[in-house]
Design a protein that fits this description.
Elements (H helix, E strand, L loop, with lengths): L1 E7 L1 E4 L4 E9 L6 E7 L6 E7 L6 E2 L7 E3 L10 E3 L8 E8 L13 E2 L3 E6 L1
Parallel strand pairs: 2-11
Antiparallel strand pairs: 1-3, 3-8, 4-5, 4-9, 5-6, 7-8, 9-10, 9-11
């Protein structure tokens, strides 16, 4: 089994920055991709950023491109999400996810492991 531990998040005013961290533990050897998803109240969960381990360009939700950055490989199974120039519409619960087979946002149900979620609130 794999456990995902998320940290960071919180409340910030519009234009501010936050950094989310996620590290995987347990049977991590078969993880090929980690991603961040978010869910706002009353809305569906959506993919925000994802990146393969071992190379390849990252995936970003169009509305966060140029503002959010998902971290590169650093020797462990972790992925940080640096969020700059935050907007009120970025408010939601953010989830870290890990997959053994896929990457990107096409099939969220294909992600094998999920974190508990961490709250991000951006006030105007």
């Amino acid at each position: 089994q794999v456990q995902l531990m998320e940290s960071g998040g919180g409340s910030v005013e519009a234009g501010g920055s936050l950094r989310l961290s996620c590290i995987a533990s347990g049977n991590t050897a078969d993880i090929t991709c980690m991603a961040w998803f978010r869910q706002a109240p009353g809305k569906n969960r959506e993919g925000v950023a994802a990146r393969w381990f071992g190379g390849g360009a990252p995936y970003y939700l169009y509305s966060v491109m140029g503002r959010f950055t998902i971290s590169e490989d650093n020797g462990d199974y972790s992925r940080d999400l640096q969020m700059n120039n935050l907007k009120p519409e970025d408010t939601g619960t953010y989830y870290c996810a890990a997959s053994r087979t896929i990457c990107g946002f096409g099939t969220p149900s294909a992600y094998d492991y999920w974190g508990q979620g961490i709250r991000v609130t951006v006030s105007s």
